Amino acid sequence: MLNKLRTELTHFKSQSHNFKTLTLTNLIYSVVLPVIDIFVAAYVMRSSNDPTKVVVYQLTIYTGIPLTFLINGWLLNRFPIKILYSLGMVLSAVSMMIMMSLKTLDITGIGIAGIVMGMSFGFYWANRDFLALATTNDKNRNYYYGLETFFYTIIAVVIPVFIGWFIEFSAHDGNAKSAYKMITGLVFLITIGASVMCFKGKFENPGNKKFIYFKFDPYWYKLLFLAVLKGLVQGFLVTAPAMLIMLLLGKEGALGTAQSVGAIFAALLMYVIGRNTGPQHRIYVFGAGLALFTIAALINGILFNQTGVILFMLFLLLAKPLLDLAYFPIQFSVIDILTRKENRSEFAYILNHEAGLYLGRLTGAGTFLILAYCFSNEIALRYAIIIVAVLQLSSYWVAKGIIKQGKSMTAPGPAQETLQNSPVVPNTL
Predict the structure, then answer these.
(1) Where are the transmembrane segments (predicted)?
(2) pTM of the entire structure?
(3) Going from the N-terminus, what domains does the chain have, and what CATH number goes with each?
(4) Are 263 and 241 a contacting pair, CB within 8 Å?
(5) Which residues pair with 428 in a beta bridge?
């Protein structure tokens, strides 16, 4: 076992300086992610007891993300990417501070906090995606995301339990909000630490300054459709666990425990998969994640009780990292191909990809709101997840077609000559 650990450590040390710096930056910031993803939604739920406010909060986040992606593209022409990446991490703590300062959680206050959190995610993910794309290649991307997911999932064992029971213990004395404020202060310090680590990297900004295009190669639109399908369930992966557990279990402590059950097994599995799989295995990993998420949604819809929530969380612990582990390398391989073919900046594709995610998020969240207003919150929580999960199953065949076409476009011979001789689409802004 010790020799195996040394082998894995040696393999990590053999990666580039930027690879290691980016991984460690994301490792530090990953301590914050369970707080942002789960407990902010739980705070809104505890304070308002209204699932629709949680979804409104999520919609304002989703509105802030693409706007900030666009702003980030312009700022990259003026500021180092390290500054913008760090700004995204720090803004997540600022958003929580805004939320904690509200005396009453009205729609306006929730919306402001949501927009700021959306800006945080926009700066964070726009620059993180570019840095991951620039730092890795198609051969080591499975390892990168497997390693990253391993750390994220291990941290998900400790953080939700610690914070959940800390909040619940404080709530017995009527000081739940004070506990949330203390956690917010800790989040701010951690984001500063992640920013310091980020500045140790030798990261370069995108070379091509143009980043807005209105026409793309037909191959790109296939990935854009895949992004829409991915966006359908993204909102539910963030807010559904908090809403379900607060409604059916009622305690942040239970929320934290449910998040942690099975997480160690999931972490080890993700690392093994990332370390031992290559591009040819991605469609199988992706399909497994889709199947597990659909099973989780069906279990929740059929049972809709405490047992159903726990099982939903267990399946989700495996489904989400499997989907991410396969999806990001598929996305980046398409960008690699089209960057060479169309002679464009990688950030142009990252920005346009966010538009596809946004359309999917609006559709998914809109499905929840329609069911909530026309029927009830219970109907929305019970059946909206099933609807989007079933729709997302079609992602398997879309991804399979993308991978197959990508192989033909990069294969030597006539296909490669076609790639090299294809004209660049000229429509730009």
Answers:
(1) 21-44, 56-76, 83-101, 107-126, 147-167, 179-199, 220-248, 254-274, 283-303, 309-334, 355-373, 379-399
(2) 0.78
(3) 17-202+211-421 (1.20.1250.20)
(4) no
(5) 213
